[in-house]
Design a protein that fits this description.
Layout: H1 2-33, H2 35-41, E1 45-46, E2 55-56, H3 62-73, E3 76-81, H4 87-101, E4 106-111, H5 114-129, H6 133-138, E5 152-154, E6 160-165, H7 170-174, E7 179-183, H8 191-200, E8 205-211, H9 216-221
Parallel strand pairs: 3-8, 4-6, 4-7, 7-8
Antiparallel strand pairs: 1-2, 5-6
Length: 238
C-alpha cells in the first residue's frame, strides 16, 4: 500500500509539473504573438496619481485595438493625442515587446530634452519589472537595472532601448535604430530634420506622437485626410 501511495504521489507531482510547464509555454507563446494581450493582461502600468493602487493593467480602450492595427499596418505613424490617452505608455509598451521578442533590436526614444526622452524608457522599465515572473525569465535583462546606464535598457537577447534628447539628429543615424519613437514631437527642435534622418536610417518603424501644437510636427499632420477604417495600406514607393 505504501508503495502504491508513493507511486501515486510521484505520478500526481509529475502531472502537476507537466501541466505547469504547458501553461508556461502557452503563456509565453500567446504573449509573444499578441502584444496587446500581453500589455492588457500580464504587466502593469503606473498611475502616479493613485497613491493607494498605482500599478494597473492597460485599460481595454477600443482605440488601443485601432492603434495596434495601425502599428501592424504602417511603417510610419504620426499621431496627435491628448494627454489622457496613455499613448506614450502604449507605444513604449509596443517598443519594449518588440525588443524582447526580436533579438538585436535597437529602439530609440527621441524627446525634446533628456527628461522627456527618459520618460518612455522609464515606462518600459516599469512594464518589464511588473510583468509576470514567467515572462521576466523568458525575456531577461542583460544585467540588473542598477548596473545599467541610466539612458539605456539592455536585454539578454542583445536588444537595447535608448533615450536620446532631440538636439543632434545625427545621433539617430549613428545608433542604427530598428524603431524610432518621437515623443512630444511638436516641441522637438529640428523635428523635420530629425524625422528625415530617421527615414534615411530605414528603421522598421517610425512613430511620432504629440499633443497638438503649431510647429514642424503640425505642418506634417495638418493636411491629413480621413480614410475608412480598417483600410488596406497603399503600396510603398521606395
Amino acid at each position: 500500500m505504501n508503495n502504491l501511495n508513493s507511486t501515486s504521489r510521484k505520478e500526481l507531482i509529475a502531472l502537476a509539473t507537466a501541466k505547469k510547464e504547458l501553461e508556461r509555454r502557452t503563456l509565453i507563446r500567446r504573449c509573444t504573438s499578441d502584444p496587446l494581450y500581453y500589455l492588457q493582461n500580464h504587466t502593469r502600468t503606473k498611475d502616479e496619481q493613485d497613491k493607494k493602487h498605482p500599478y494597473k493593467p492597460f485599460p481595454p480602450y477600443k482605440y488601443f485595438e485601432m492603434l495596434y492595427a495601425a502599428w501592424l499596418a504602417e511603417p510610419i505613424l504620426l499621431i496627435e493625442k491628448s494627454r489622457t490617452m496613455m499613448l506614450t505608455w502604449f507605444f513604449a509598451g509596443l517598443c519594449l515587446h518588440y525588443a524582447m521578442t526580436n533579438p538585436a533590436s535597437k529602439i530609440i526614444f527621441w524627446g525634446p530634452d533628456e527628461d522627456r526622452a527618459l520618460q518612455p524608457l522609464d515606462y518600459a522599465w516599469t512594464l518589464w519589472e511588473n510583468q509576470v515572473p514567467e515572462l521576466q525569465a523568458a525575456w531577461p535583462l542583460d544585467r540588473p537595472r542598477e548596473r545599467q546606464n541610466y539612458v539605456k535598457m539592455e536585454l539578454g537577447n542583445d536588444s537595447a532601448l535608448v533615450a536620446l534628447p532631440g538636439k543632434d539628429p545625427d545621433r539617430i543615424r549613428k545608433d542604427h535604430p530598428t524603431i524610432v519613437l518621437f515623443d512630444e514631437a511638436a516641441i522637438i527642435e529640428r523635428f523635420e530634420e530629425s524625422y528625415g534622418v530617421a527615414l534615411a536610417a530605414r528603421p522598421v518603424k517610425i512613430v511620432a506622437i504629440s499633443s497638438a501644437k503649431p510647429g514642424e510636427f503640425r505642418n506634417m499632420t495638418k493636411d491629413a485626410k480621413p480614410v475608412p477604417w480598417p483600410y488596406a495600406r497603399l503600396p510603398r514607393c521606395d
